Amino acid sequence: MFIAWLLLFKSLIAFILVNASVVGLEWTQYHNLDEIYEWLSELETKFSPLVTVYTIGYSYENRPIKAIKISSQPGNQAIFMESNIHAIEWISSAASTCFVDKLLHSDDKNLQDLLLRYDWFLVPVMNPDGFTYTHEINRWWRKNRKPTGFSNETGPCYGTDLNRNFNYEWKKSGFPISDPCDHWYHGSGPDTEPEVLALQNFINQFEDDYIRLYLAMHAYGNFVLLPYGHTSDIFPPNYDQMMRIAQGFADAAIKSYNTTFQCGASGLLNYSGYVSGDAKDWIYAVKNVPFAATIELRDNGRYGFLLPADQIVEVCTELTDGMVGLIKAAEMERVLTPKV
Ligand SMILES: *[C@@H]1O[C@H](CO)[C@@H](O)[C@H](O)[C@H]1NC(C)=O
Ligand SMILES: *[C@@H]1O[C@H](CO)[C@@H](O)[C@H](O)[C@H]1NC(C)=O
Ligand SMILES: *[C@@H]1O[C@H](CO)[C@@H](O)[C@H](O)[C@H]1NC(C)=O
Ligand SMILES: [Zn+2]
Protein backbone atom coordinates (compact mmCIF):
# COMPACT_ATOMS: atom_id res chain seq x y z
CA MET A 1 0.00 0.00 0.00
CA PHE A 2 2.72 2.44 1.04
CA ILE A 3 4.85 1.45 -1.98
CA ALA A 4 1.96 1.99 -4.35
CA TRP A 5 1.30 5.40 -2.86
CA LEU A 6 5.00 6.27 -3.15
CA LEU A 7 5.08 5.26 -6.79
CA LEU A 8 2.01 7.32 -7.52
CA PHE A 9 3.52 10.29 -5.71
CA LYS A 10 6.79 9.91 -7.63
CA SER A 11 5.09 9.78 -10.98
CA LEU A 12 3.01 12.81 -10.05
CA ILE A 13 6.19 14.79 -9.28
CA ALA A 14 7.76 13.57 -12.52
CA PHE A 15 4.65 14.65 -14.41
CA ILE A 16 4.78 18.13 -12.87
CA LEU A 17 8.49 18.53 -13.61
CA VAL A 18 8.18 17.38 -17.21
CA ASN A 19 5.29 19.69 -17.86
CA ALA A 20 6.96 22.63 -16.16
CA SER A 21 9.92 22.25 -18.50
CA VAL A 22 7.71 22.20 -21.58
CA VAL A 23 6.93 25.86 -21.05
CA GLY A 24 9.63 28.22 -22.32
CA LEU A 25 13.18 27.65 -23.40
CA GLU A 26 15.82 25.86 -21.42
CA TRP A 27 19.38 27.01 -21.60
CA THR A 28 20.92 23.58 -21.30
CA GLN A 29 20.97 23.19 -25.06
CA TYR A 30 21.01 25.34 -28.19
CA HIS A 31 17.66 25.99 -29.85
CA ASN A 32 16.60 26.46 -33.45
CA LEU A 33 14.66 29.39 -34.89
CA ASP A 34 11.19 27.89 -34.35
CA GLU A 35 11.93 27.19 -30.70
CA ILE A 36 13.23 30.71 -30.12
CA TYR A 37 10.20 32.26 -31.85
CA GLU A 38 7.87 30.02 -29.86
CA TRP A 39 9.51 31.30 -26.68
CA LEU A 40 8.94 34.89 -27.85
CA SER A 41 5.24 34.34 -28.36
CA GLU A 42 4.92 32.57 -25.00
CA LEU A 43 6.46 35.61 -23.32
CA GLU A 44 4.08 37.89 -25.17
CA THR A 45 1.10 35.87 -23.97
CA LYS A 46 2.35 35.55 -20.43
CA PHE A 47 3.55 39.14 -19.94
CA SER A 48 1.12 41.17 -22.08
CA PRO A 49 1.02 44.19 -22.15
CA LEU A 50 4.55 44.47 -20.73
CA VAL A 51 5.97 42.47 -23.64
CA THR A 52 5.33 43.05 -27.34
CA VAL A 53 6.70 40.97 -30.21
CA TYR A 54 7.28 42.63 -33.59
CA THR A 55 8.14 41.29 -37.00
CA ILE A 56 10.59 43.95 -38.14
CA GLY A 57 11.00 42.57 -41.65
CA TYR A 58 11.74 39.43 -43.63
CA SER A 59 14.95 37.68 -44.59
CA TYR A 60 15.94 36.90 -48.17
CA GLU A 61 14.28 33.47 -47.88
CA ASN A 62 11.22 35.17 -46.39
CA ARG A 63 11.58 34.18 -42.77
CA PRO A 64 10.30 36.75 -40.26
CA ILE A 65 12.90 38.72 -38.30
CA LYS A 66 11.40 39.16 -34.86
CA ALA A 67 12.04 41.59 -32.07
CA ILE A 68 10.81 41.64 -28.51
CA LYS A 69 10.13 44.87 -26.66
CA ILE A 70 9.71 45.06 -22.90
CA SER A 71 8.34 48.30 -21.51
CA SER A 72 7.11 48.73 -17.95
CA GLN A 73 6.20 52.41 -18.11
CA PRO A 74 6.00 55.25 -20.63
CA GLY A 75 8.88 57.71 -20.86
CA ASN A 76 11.73 55.20 -20.43
CA GLN A 77 14.93 55.37 -22.43
CA ALA A 78 15.77 52.26 -24.45
CA ILE A 79 18.52 49.67 -24.50
CA PHE A 80 18.77 47.70 -27.74
CA MET A 81 20.36 44.27 -28.17
CA GLU A 82 20.81 42.16 -31.25
CA SER A 83 22.31 38.67 -31.70
CA ASN A 84 23.10 35.99 -34.25
CA ILE A 85 23.71 38.37 -37.12
CA HIS A 86 26.52 35.88 -37.65
CA ALA A 87 24.80 32.54 -38.04
CA ILE A 88 27.63 30.46 -36.62
CA GLU A 89 27.68 32.28 -33.27
CA TRP A 90 24.99 30.30 -31.47
CA ILE A 91 26.02 31.42 -28.00
CA SER A 92 25.04 35.00 -28.91
CA SER A 93 21.30 34.26 -29.12
CA ALA A 94 21.44 31.64 -26.36
CA ALA A 95 22.91 34.17 -23.92
CA SER A 96 20.77 37.13 -25.02
CA THR A 97 17.51 35.18 -24.72
CA CYS A 98 18.61 33.79 -21.35
CA PHE A 99 19.40 37.33 -20.20
CA VAL A 100 15.97 38.64 -21.25
CA ASP A 101 14.32 35.70 -19.50
CA LYS A 102 16.21 36.56 -16.31
CA LEU A 103 15.21 40.18 -16.62
CA LEU A 104 11.54 39.13 -16.72
CA HIS A 105 11.68 36.50 -13.98
CA SER A 106 14.35 37.59 -11.51
CA ASP A 107 13.75 38.34 -7.86
CA ASP A 108 17.06 40.22 -7.79
CA LYS A 109 16.44 43.88 -6.99
CA ASN A 110 19.07 45.13 -9.48
CA LEU A 111 17.42 43.31 -12.36
CA GLN A 112 13.93 44.34 -11.31
CA ASP A 113 15.10 47.96 -11.37
CA LEU A 114 16.53 47.53 -14.86
CA LEU A 115 13.26 46.01 -16.03
CA LEU A 116 11.24 48.90 -14.64
CA ARG A 117 13.47 51.81 -15.57
CA TYR A 118 14.35 51.06 -19.17
CA ASP A 119 12.67 49.84 -22.32
CA TRP A 120 14.41 46.74 -23.63
CA PHE A 121 14.64 45.52 -27.19
CA LEU A 122 16.14 42.28 -28.41
CA VAL A 123 16.34 40.93 -31.94
CA PRO A 124 17.44 37.41 -30.98
CA VAL A 125 18.17 36.18 -34.50
CA MET A 126 19.14 38.92 -36.94
CA ASN A 127 20.02 36.37 -39.62
CA PRO A 128 17.30 33.71 -39.63
CA ASP A 129 18.29 32.16 -42.98
CA GLY A 130 21.92 31.70 -42.04
CA PHE A 131 20.93 30.50 -38.56
CA THR A 132 18.57 27.88 -40.01
CA TYR A 133 21.31 26.84 -42.42
CA THR A 134 23.70 26.25 -39.50
CA HIS A 135 21.10 24.04 -37.81
CA GLU A 136 20.15 22.05 -40.88
CA ILE A 137 23.07 21.98 -43.31
CA ASN A 138 26.37 23.57 -42.35
CA ARG A 139 27.22 24.42 -38.71
CA TRP A 140 30.04 26.68 -39.92
CA TRP A 141 27.92 29.15 -41.94
CA ARG A 142 28.33 32.86 -41.07
CA LYS A 143 26.55 35.05 -43.65
CA ASN A 144 22.99 35.36 -44.88
CA ARG A 145 21.87 33.18 -47.83
CA LYS A 146 21.26 35.62 -50.66
CA PRO A 147 23.16 34.68 -53.84
CA THR A 148 25.98 37.16 -54.45
CA GLY A 149 25.66 36.92 -58.23
CA PHE A 150 29.23 35.61 -58.42
CA SER A 151 30.54 32.10 -58.71
CA ASN A 152 33.85 30.29 -58.66
CA GLU A 153 34.83 26.82 -59.85
CA THR A 154 32.73 25.19 -57.11
CA GLY A 155 29.56 26.96 -58.31
CA PRO A 156 27.47 29.98 -57.28
CA CYS A 157 28.49 31.84 -54.12
CA TYR A 158 25.94 32.68 -51.44
CA GLY A 159 25.73 35.17 -48.68
CA THR A 160 26.85 38.57 -47.43
CA ASP A 161 28.39 39.18 -44.03
CA LEU A 162 25.57 41.34 -42.65
CA ASN A 163 27.89 42.89 -40.11
CA ARG A 164 30.01 44.31 -42.95
CA ASN A 165 27.07 45.67 -44.96
CA PHE A 166 26.00 48.74 -42.96
CA ASN A 167 26.39 52.12 -44.57
CA TYR A 168 29.13 53.67 -42.51
CA GLU A 169 32.67 53.58 -43.90
CA TRP A 170 31.46 50.59 -45.87
CA LYS A 171 34.25 48.70 -47.64
CA LYS A 172 36.89 50.99 -46.08
CA SER A 173 39.10 48.27 -44.63
CA GLY A 174 39.23 44.63 -43.66
CA PHE A 175 40.41 41.59 -45.51
CA PRO A 176 38.98 39.70 -47.46
CA ILE A 177 35.65 41.53 -47.43
CA SER A 178 35.64 42.16 -51.18
CA ASP A 179 35.71 38.48 -52.15
CA PRO A 180 32.10 37.50 -52.93
CA CYS A 181 32.83 33.86 -52.17
CA ASP A 182 34.41 34.47 -48.78
CA HIS A 183 32.96 34.40 -45.26
CA TRP A 184 33.36 38.15 -44.76
CA TYR A 185 31.93 39.46 -48.05
CA HIS A 186 30.61 43.01 -47.56
CA GLY A 187 27.97 42.84 -50.31
CA SER A 188 27.76 44.56 -53.69
CA GLY A 189 27.06 47.91 -52.00
CA PRO A 190 26.17 49.29 -48.57
CA ASP A 191 22.72 48.43 -47.16
CA THR A 192 21.95 45.86 -49.86
CA GLU A 193 20.69 43.07 -47.60
CA PRO A 194 17.04 42.74 -46.47
CA GLU A 195 18.05 41.80 -42.93
CA VAL A 196 20.19 44.94 -42.56
CA LEU A 197 17.39 47.11 -43.98
CA ALA A 198 14.84 45.55 -41.64
CA LEU A 199 16.91 46.50 -38.60
CA GLN A 200 17.56 50.00 -39.92
CA ASN A 201 13.89 50.62 -40.73
CA PHE A 202 12.87 49.47 -37.27
CA ILE A 203 15.43 51.70 -35.58
CA ASN A 204 14.68 54.68 -37.84
CA GLN A 205 11.10 54.83 -36.50
CA PHE A 206 12.21 55.85 -33.03
CA GLU A 207 12.70 59.43 -32.02
CA ASP A 208 16.25 60.69 -31.53
CA ASP A 209 17.76 59.98 -28.12
CA TYR A 210 15.32 57.14 -27.30
CA ILE A 211 17.91 54.38 -27.79
CA ARG A 212 20.87 55.12 -25.51
CA LEU A 213 22.77 51.82 -25.48
CA TYR A 214 23.24 49.40 -28.35
CA LEU A 215 24.78 45.97 -27.82
CA ALA A 216 25.61 43.68 -30.71
CA MET A 217 26.11 40.18 -29.29
CA HIS A 218 28.78 38.04 -30.96
CA ALA A 219 31.35 35.32 -30.26
CA TYR A 220 34.07 34.65 -29.51
CA GLY A 221 37.11 36.07 -27.67
CA ASN A 222 35.72 37.92 -24.59
CA PHE A 223 35.90 41.50 -25.79
CA VAL A 224 33.84 44.65 -25.45
CA LEU A 225 34.58 46.27 -28.80
CA LEU A 226 33.82 49.95 -29.35
CA PRO A 227 33.68 52.18 -32.45
CA TYR A 228 35.42 52.54 -34.76
CA GLY A 229 36.32 49.30 -36.50
CA HIS A 230 37.80 50.55 -39.75
CA THR A 231 40.75 52.49 -38.32
CA SER A 232 43.22 52.56 -35.45
CA ASP A 233 43.95 56.28 -35.90
CA ILE A 234 40.61 58.03 -35.46
CA PHE A 235 38.58 57.74 -32.25
CA PRO A 236 34.97 58.64 -31.52
CA PRO A 237 34.32 61.97 -29.73
CA ASN A 238 33.26 60.29 -26.45
CA TYR A 239 35.64 57.34 -26.68
CA ASP A 240 36.99 57.79 -23.12
CA GLN A 241 33.47 57.83 -21.78
CA MET A 242 32.54 54.70 -23.74
CA MET A 243 35.68 53.03 -22.39
CA ARG A 244 34.59 53.72 -18.80
CA ILE A 245 31.17 52.22 -19.55
CA ALA A 246 32.71 49.18 -21.25
CA GLN A 247 35.00 48.76 -18.25
CA GLY A 248 31.87 48.74 -16.06
CA PHE A 249 30.83 45.65 -17.99
CA ALA A 250 34.23 43.98 -17.71
CA ASP A 251 34.62 44.71 -13.99
CA ALA A 252 31.26 43.11 -13.25
CA ALA A 253 31.46 40.22 -15.72
CA ILE A 254 34.66 38.87 -14.15
CA LYS A 255 32.95 38.31 -10.81
CA SER A 256 31.41 34.86 -11.15
CA TYR A 257 33.90 32.86 -13.22
CA ASN A 258 36.99 35.07 -13.49
CA THR A 259 36.37 35.68 -17.17
CA THR A 260 38.34 38.69 -18.39
CA PHE A 261 36.82 40.95 -21.04
CA GLN A 262 39.21 43.23 -22.88
CA CYS A 263 37.77 46.64 -23.86
CA GLY A 264 38.70 48.99 -26.69
CA ALA A 265 37.96 50.23 -30.17
CA SER A 266 37.73 47.25 -32.49
CA GLY A 267 40.09 48.99 -34.91
CA LEU A 268 42.65 49.48 -32.15
CA LEU A 269 42.42 45.99 -30.71
CA ASN A 270 42.36 44.88 -34.34
CA TYR A 271 40.56 41.72 -33.31
CA SER A 272 40.60 39.60 -36.48
CA GLY A 273 41.69 42.67 -38.47
CA TYR A 274 39.80 45.86 -39.18
CA VAL A 275 36.01 45.84 -39.51
CA SER A 276 34.05 48.26 -41.70
CA GLY A 277 30.32 48.58 -42.09
CA ASP A 278 29.35 46.88 -38.85
CA ALA A 279 26.14 47.55 -36.93
CA LYS A 280 27.73 49.21 -33.90
CA ASP A 281 29.62 51.79 -36.00
CA TRP A 282 26.48 52.61 -37.99
CA ILE A 283 24.38 52.99 -34.84
CA TYR A 284 26.99 55.17 -33.21
CA ALA A 285 28.03 57.34 -36.15
CA VAL A 286 24.82 57.55 -38.19
CA LYS A 287 22.14 57.20 -35.51
CA ASN A 288 24.10 59.07 -32.82
CA VAL A 289 23.45 56.49 -30.12
CA PRO A 290 25.95 57.52 -27.42
CA PHE A 291 27.16 54.03 -26.49
CA ALA A 292 27.45 51.19 -28.98
CA ALA A 293 29.48 48.02 -28.54
CA THR A 294 30.04 44.59 -29.98
CA ILE A 295 30.28 42.09 -27.15
CA GLU A 296 32.28 39.00 -28.02
CA LEU A 297 31.24 36.28 -25.58
CA ARG A 298 33.15 33.09 -24.67
CA ASP A 299 35.48 31.57 -25.19
CA ASN A 300 39.14 32.32 -25.91
CA GLY A 301 39.47 29.76 -28.67
CA ARG A 302 39.45 26.39 -26.93
CA TYR A 303 36.05 25.54 -28.44
CA GLY A 304 35.63 28.77 -30.39
CA PHE A 305 32.36 28.88 -32.33
CA LEU A 306 31.44 25.40 -31.07
CA LEU A 307 31.08 26.40 -27.44
CA PRO A 308 29.47 23.46 -25.58
CA ALA A 309 25.89 24.00 -24.47
CA ASP A 310 26.79 23.28 -20.86
CA GLN A 311 28.48 26.71 -20.78
CA ILE A 312 25.36 28.69 -21.80
CA VAL A 313 24.16 29.23 -18.26
CA GLU A 314 27.57 30.50 -17.12
CA VAL A 315 27.85 32.84 -20.10
CA CYS A 316 24.36 34.11 -19.31
CA THR A 317 25.46 34.85 -15.74
CA GLU A 318 28.53 36.71 -17.02
CA LEU A 319 26.41 38.70 -19.42
CA THR A 320 23.85 39.52 -16.73
CA ASP A 321 26.52 40.63 -14.25
CA GLY A 322 28.19 42.60 -17.02
CA MET A 323 24.98 44.36 -18.04
CA VAL A 324 24.27 45.44 -14.47
CA GLY A 325 27.80 46.90 -14.26
CA LEU A 326 27.56 48.51 -17.68
CA ILE A 327 24.26 50.22 -16.90
CA LYS A 328 25.53 51.50 -13.55
CA ALA A 329 28.52 53.01 -15.34
CA ALA A 330 26.29 54.48 -18.07
CA GLU A 331 24.09 56.10 -15.41
CA MET A 332 27.15 57.59 -13.70
CA GLU A 333 28.24 58.99 -17.06
CA ARG A 334 24.72 60.32 -17.64
CA VAL A 335 24.51 58.44 -20.89
CA LEU A 336 21.47 56.80 -19.34
CA THR A 337 18.95 58.61 -17.16
CA PRO A 338 16.48 56.36 -15.38
CA LYS A 339 12.96 57.74 -15.13
CA VAL A 340 12.48 56.55 -11.55
C1 LIG B 1 34.67 29.07 -54.00
O1 LIG B 1 33.59 29.52 -53.16
C2 LIG B 1 33.31 28.69 -52.05
C3 LIG B 1 32.15 29.31 -51.30
O2 LIG B 1 31.06 29.52 -52.12
C4 LIG B 1 34.52 28.58 -51.15
O3 LIG B 1 34.26 27.67 -50.10
C5 LIG B 1 35.72 28.12 -51.95
O4 LIG B 1 36.87 28.18 -51.12
C6 LIG B 1 35.94 29.01 -53.14
N1 LIG B 1 37.06 28.52 -53.95
C7 LIG B 1 38.12 29.28 -54.25
C8 LIG B 1 39.19 28.62 -55.07
O5 LIG B 1 38.22 30.44 -53.89
C1 LIG C 1 41.81 34.56 -12.78
O1 LIG C 1 42.40 34.64 -14.05
C2 LIG C 1 43.71 35.15 -14.08
C3 LIG C 1 44.19 35.21 -15.51
O2 LIG C 1 43.22 35.63 -16.37
C4 LIG C 1 44.62 34.25 -13.25
O3 LIG C 1 45.91 34.82 -13.20
C5 LIG C 1 44.06 34.10 -11.85
O4 LIG C 1 44.83 33.15 -11.14
C6 LIG C 1 42.62 33.63 -11.88
N1 LIG C 1 42.06 33.62 -10.55
C7 LIG C 1 41.32 32.62 -10.10
C8 LIG C 1 40.79 32.77 -8.72
O5 LIG C 1 41.07 31.62 -10.76
C1 LIG D 1 45.28 45.36 -38.17
O1 LIG D 1 45.11 44.16 -38.89
C2 LIG D 1 45.31 44.31 -40.27
C3 LIG D 1 44.96 42.99 -40.94
O2 LIG D 1 45.26 41.91 -40.11
C4 LIG D 1 46.73 44.78 -40.55
O3 LIG D 1 46.92 44.99 -41.93
C5 LIG D 1 46.98 46.09 -39.80
O4 LIG D 1 48.33 46.48 -39.94
C6 LIG D 1 46.66 45.93 -38.32
N1 LIG D 1 46.76 47.22 -37.68
C7 LIG D 1 47.34 47.40 -36.50
C8 LIG D 1 47.32 48.79 -35.95
O5 LIG D 1 47.85 46.49 -35.85
ZN1 LIG E 1 30.27 37.87 -35.04
UniProtKB/TrEMBL annotation:
The places in or outside the cell where this protein is found are:
Secreted
User: PROSITE patterns attached here?
Assistant: PEPTIDASE_M14 (PS52035)
Cofactor(s), by name: Zn(2+)
Q: Name one GO cellular component term.
A: extracellular space
Annotated GO molecular function terms are:
metallocarboxypeptidase activity; zinc ion binding
The record's principal subcellular location, in a coarse class, is: secreted
Query: Any idea which residues are catalytic in this one?
Result: E296 (proton donor/acceptor)
Name the job this protein performs.
Involved in the digestion of the blood meal.
- Give the protein name, as stated in the record: Peptidase M14 domain-containing protein
Organism source for this protein? Glossina pallidipes
Which lineage ranks, top first, belong to the organism behind this chain? Eukaryota, Metazoa, Ecdysozoa, Arthropoda, Hexapoda
